[in-house]
Amino acid sequence: MRSYRRHRLLVPVLLCALAVLAARPTSAHKEPGSGTGTGADTGLSAEVARLYEEAAVATQQYEAGREEAEEQRAEAQRAEALLDAQRRHIAALHEDLGRIARAQYRSSGGLPVAAHMILADSPDGLMRGQHAFSQADLAVNNAISKNQRAEARLAADEARAAAQWEALEKRTTQLAGLKADIEQKLETARSQLQGQADAAVAAGACRGAARLDQPETGFTDGEWVAPVETYELSASYGSGGARWSNRHTGQDFAVPIGTPVRAVGAGRVVKVSCGGPFGMEIVLKHAGGYYTQYAHLASLAVDQGEHVSPGQWIGQSGTTGNSTGPHLHFEARVTPESGSAVDPVSWLAARGVSL
Question: Which of 121, 167, 222, 253 has the most CB atoms in a 10 Å sphere around its CB?
Fold first, then answer.
């Protein structure tokens, strides 16, 4: 009976001990790509993503400002043409004043109109002289007044045009400075991100997923997208060259380091690895037995086993592994391993994505 009670007490004690051991941290080796990144890794990846978006916005603002500047420049040039017309008009008014003065001199025989009035020898002559004097004075006053108004308008228009040019140049300079500042910060952050990725690849151990805050994509299940949003196509599927021992097995997208890489469709992460010719890479499995590979990455935003949706950010582009410069190497395959690739451009085109 005593032995039975001892066994009854021993079972809870063992269960408590097992619970404590399970709760303790372990130093056991994790699968490559398992877990999440450190705070520093996540912060740097997020900083690159944020700066990437800010640079895109700054570029849009700069381009919009440049277009606005071109419109304002055209408007300023039209204003300059109007100012030239006003200057010619004022020159004509000055000529009119000179013509009036010369006409008065000729009609009065070289004597001022007032002198003719004083020397008049009859009332009729005095009246004619007074009328001529009044007409001449009115013409001169009208011409002077017209000239003064034109000169005032010209001065105001010139000041307004100068202010517009100054504001235009100031705005263009500000936009260019803002764009250059963000791009400089982005370049520094990209370099640091690539340095971390190179270290991870050299060690053959991924740092884990660096979670990124992604804007709403608006995609639904069953839709397909390009693996990056803005790009230039470089090396194509099947092309040859000294860089590859065989034909090129994917489609390269020339993009800067840190560019968000998207899942082309809904799927599951079946491979996350660092090291080897592909550097940092992700392989997704999609419905229908197809797989897609995303290689030469600088960071990972998903872990192995995760399910992803179309357009979801899964990492950031880089130049790890056997890479001659920043780009994304994208493959479509019938197995998760190399050697089973199909033409990714045609594969995406069949799913409504035209590159």
Answer: 253
Q: Are 190 and 257 in contact (CB under 8 A)?
A: yes
Q: pTM of this prediction?
A: 0.63
- Spatial distance between the Cα atoms of 302 and 320, rounded to a whole number of angstroms: 18
**Parallel, antiparallel, or unpaired for β 307-308 and 291-300?**
unpaired
Instruction: Report d(CA 281, CA 330) in Å as an integer.
Output: 10
Q: What is the DSSP letter of 327?
A: B
Rounded Cα distance between 88 and 72, Å, is 24
Rounded CA-CA distance 302/209 in Å is 5
Lowest mean pLDDT among 156-165, 173-182, 183-192: 156-165
Report the DSSP beta bridge partners of residue 75. Answer: none
User: Contact at 8 Å (CB) between 35 and 302?
Assistant: no
Model confidence band, residue 158 (pLDDT cutoffs 50, 70, 90): confident
Q: Is the pLDDT reported for residue 38 higher than 60?
A: no
Token pair 């001022």: residue:
112
Q: What is the mean pLDDT of residues 126-147?
A: 66
Separation CA 77–CA 82 (nearest Å): 9
What are the backbone dihedrals phi and psi of residue 300, each rounded to the nearest 5 degrees, phi first? -115, 140
Residues 30, 205: Cα–Cα separation, whole Å: 10
Token couple for 203: 């060690």
C-alpha–C-alpha distance, residues 258 and 66, integer Å: 27
- Element spanning 316, H or E: strand 313-317
Strand, coil or helix: 160:
helix
Closest CA to 317 of 266, 286, 278: 278
Q: Tens of pLDDT along 251-290?
A: 999 999 999 999 999 999 999 999 889 999 999 999 999 9
Nearest Cα to 320, choosing from 265, 355, 280? Answer: 280
Q: Which residue has the tokens 């990846």?
A: 45
3-state DSSP call for residue 226? coil
